[in-house]
Design brief:
Layout (H helix, E strand, L loop, with lengths): L9 E3 L2 E3 L3 E3 L8 H10 L4 E8 L23 E6 L7 H9 L4 E5 L5 H6 L7 H14 L4 E5 L7 H14 L3 E5 L13 H10 L4 E4 L5 H11 L3 E4 L1 H5 L3 H10 L9 H15 L5 H12 L6 H10 L3 H16 L1
Parallel strand pairs: 3-4, 3-10, 4-5, 5-6, 6-7, 7-8, 8-9, 9-10
Antiparallel strand pairs: 1-2
The structure holds flavin mononucleotide.
Flavin mononucleotide binds next to β4 and α8.
């Protein structure tokens, strides 16, 4: 093993995250098949689920639910929840205990219209956030994390006081996505603003936003001073990115390199293993949209797969694409 540039383990509450690299919660992407693929490729320290509705969680059947299905290897695992005003949290928290959660993550940053409609995610008022965190804290002894954006406008004082309030109410780990509420992903993430939060908190902070390469990871850690990183789209484009970062920054063994097509078809095999037939193609289309970014002519892969009517057809289109691309 080579020496680690940064502390290799992040220890807080009852968790050890090693290395401190997390897969972001992403609807339609952060599911069991992608998680298993990332595990096989190495370098991952922590998983977050796709966001889950507190209202639906208690009745969702984990044997068939694509959102809850998970193998024991997908560990440590934080389930992300979103909460609407007036909702009873207790049945959902009780359910997460039965699902062997290692932690519970509260979605405070999602600006999606679906969450606007119900007053959840980034649309929760600060007072609702405070009472919600307090309610989760008194209902569980599991670690609680929260994921935020930087706020509605760049305002250091209110950002810092909001984050301190989260810490005071019992949040154990905070992920900061370095963008304002309304900002699109094409805008560069403000890693320096994550640093403003990190500086004043005693709990660990994960930095998120715009990390696609080892060099991005290095710079983000240097600029933000964060305790670890959370990657979203970068993990769908290059599921081996965690292994590369873990090797370069945390001194883990050099990962074995597999070809693009091998990794893509392994993902299809995992979709087949983990999901019923009607759940597979949509997830492959979503993944392919990102994976295609590895290639100069990747739009041929993504648009071909988007138009496929069956998983088999998508597989044949992808095989023809990779034959040309990889020679
Ligand atoms: C398809 C997609 C789905 C997402 N779903 C969620 C979600 O369920 N909960 C959440 O907190 N953030 C969600 N996000 C935001 C990501 O977790 C992350 O904050 C964002 O993509 C920025 O990180 P990145 O630049 O590494 O992708 C989603 C992002 C994408 C692209």
């Amino acid at each position: 093993m080579r020496p680690s540039v940064y502390p290799r383990s992040l220890v807080f509450h009852s968790c050890t995250i090693n290395p401190p690299l997390a897969l972001a919660p992403m609807v339609g992407l952060s599911h069991s098949a992608l998680r298993l693929l990332i595990l096989e490729l190495g370098g991952i320290g922590l998983f977050f689920s796709e966001m889950l509705s507190v209202g639906r969680l208690p009745t969702e059947n984990e044997k068939i639910s694509p959102f809850l299905c998970r193998t024991p290897e997908e560990n440590p695992f934080f389930y992300q929840i979103f909460v609407c005003p007036g909702q009873d949290l207790l049945p959902a928290i009780a359910r997460l205990h039965t699902l062997n959660a290692q932690g519970i993550d509260l979605n405070l940053g999602c600006p999606a219209p679906a969450l606007r409609k119900v007053g959840a995610g980034s649309f929760m008022t600060p007072e609702l956030v405070r009472t919600t965190v307090a309610a989760i804290r008194s209902a569980t002894s599991l670690p609680i994390s929260a994921k935020i954006r930087l706020g509605k406008t760049l305002d250091e004082k209110s950002l810092v006081s909001f984050c301190k309030m989260l810490e005071d109410e019992g949040i154990d780990l905070l992920t900061v996505h370095g963008r304002l509420h309304g900002e699109k992903f094409c805008r560069k993430a403000r890693w320096d603003w994550i640093g403003k939060v990190k500086k004043v908190l005693n709990i660990p902070v994960l930095a998120n936003g715009g990390i696609f390469t080892v060099e991005d990871a290095r710079q983000c850690l240097a600029i933000s001073g964060a305790d670890g990183l959370m990657l979203g789209r970068g993990a769908a484009i290059r599921p081996w990115i965690f292994a590369d970062i873990a090797h370069s920054l945390y001194g883990l063994a050099k990962p074995e390199r597999r070809s693009f097509s091998e990794i893509y078809f392994r993902f299809i095999a995992l979709l087949e293993e983990r999901f019923t037939p009607e759940r597979r193609l949509g997830r492959l289309k979503q993944f392919s949209h990102y994976y295609a970014e590895n290639f100069a002519f990747g739009h041929h892969l993504s648009s071909g797969v988007q138009n496929a009517k069956t998983l088999e057809e998508a597989g044949a289109i992808a095989a023809a694409f990779f034959e040309k691309a990889e020679g």
